[in-house]
Amino acid sequence: MWSAKASPARRWRSRTGDVLTASELFRLCRDLVDIHAVRDWCQARGVVLRVLSGPLSNFHDLAASDATTALLINVITAVGQFQRDLQNKLTSERGAAAEAEGRYRGRPPALDGTFEPFQIAFEGRLTPTNL
What is the pLDDT of residues 1-60, one digit of tens each? Predict the structure, then answer.
């Protein structure tokens, strides 16, 4: 994954005309800020950015600097960010409702909290009758 904080030795090397292809834009980037960072990175290096599926798959170059491409990318990525924020909100609301009902954090613990057999074995007091 692309990272602006990566060390210079680990950053992607590219040449003008290279093509960066992603199966889906939200697989490459987590949010709107990441999308713009990747797009700026591609524009600065002359790299073509292509997406194979999703709403932005019809563009030949998502890193193009024309106004139409910029507008459409901003609108579509803003809708994608809205969708992600809405999903996070619904997930937290469902978690709060589950916690209020006492069924939050998965299944009940498998251990009952008694560790006496282990303590006996650890202290060396294990006999056939203690099993």
Answer: 445 554 444 466 788 888 888 888 778 887 778 888 888 888 898 999 888 887 777 778
Query: What span, in angstroms and rounded, lies between the C-alpha atoms of 129 and 88?
Result: 54
pLDDT tier at 90 (50, 70, 90 boundaries)?
very high
Give 2's contacts (C-beta < 8 A, 6+ positions apart).
12, 28, 37, 38, 41
Tokens of 69: 């491409």
Rounded distance between C-alpha atoms, residue 111 and residue 62, angstroms: 54
Residue 115 near residue 106, CB atoms below 8 Å = no
Q: Rounded to whole angstroms, how far apart are CA atoms 112 and 42? A: 56
Where in 46-113 does DSSP place strands (E)? Answer: 48-53
Is this model's pTM higher than 0.85 or not?
no
Its sign, for the CA torsion 14, 17, 22, 25, is positive
